[in-house]
Amino acid sequence: AKNGHAIPGARVRLTWTDIERDFPTDAKGEVTIHGLTPEAWTIEVQAKGYAEQIHTVNLTGSETAEVTATLAPGAELSGVVRNEAGEILPDAGVSVFPYRFGGGMEQIEYMVTNDQGEYHFEFLPINSIQLLVSKDDYQQLQQEVVISVARGENQKQDLTLVRRPDGGSIQ
Asked: Please, which pLDDT band fits residue 171 given cuts at 50, 70 and 90?
């Protein structure tokens, strides 16, 4: 945690792996992952009520690398994506970026809405973020969202996409 306290039960996840990928921290907030090959490993550290943190660890041999993750307070964001007629939009892409993202800023999270047009992000920072929502035949939506709920709470944010106007033709 940001205050230096251990977070038991946090999830340490190896991304892009064909071995076991999720490892919970113990009562001291620690975990050891054995049997990793010498290469670059990306790990995500997640815990309820905290913002996710991502680290890259470069293993070159049989050494043990130590990673310390200090998680900032976080919250959840969920909602429904609809069109201007109020109809739900399944399969809309929802990206989360830091507010005022620009060249070089990494995406925080991405997901596709489910059959009910719903999205749900669990480990976002309590801060201003930028949502980018896209779907075929609709104009892309870029919207600032200020996450203002208490740590671990869920903020609702429904989104509306506008159908792309019909244009000319190419022959």
From this structure: confident
Q: What is the C-alpha to C-alpha distance for residues 2 and 37, in angstroms, rounded to an integer? A: 31
Alpha helices in the chain (DSSP H): none
For 110-136, how does the pLDDT look when each residue is reduced to its tens digit (9 = 90+)? 999 999 999 999 999 999 999 999 999
Residue 44 binned pLDDT confidence (cut-offs 50, 70, 90): very high
Residue 11 tokens read as: 């999830």
Sheet containing strand 109-112, edge to edge, reads 109-112, 93-98, 128-134, 141-146
pLDDT for 102: 60
d(CA 135, CA 41): 32
CA distances (Å), origin 42, targets 67, 75, 131? 11, 23, 24
Rounded to whole angstroms, the maximal C-alpha distance in the chain is 66
| Residue tagged 């975990």 (tokens) | 31
Q: What's the distance, CA 87 to chain centroid? A: 26
HSE (side-chain half, CA atoms, 13 Å) at 58? 1
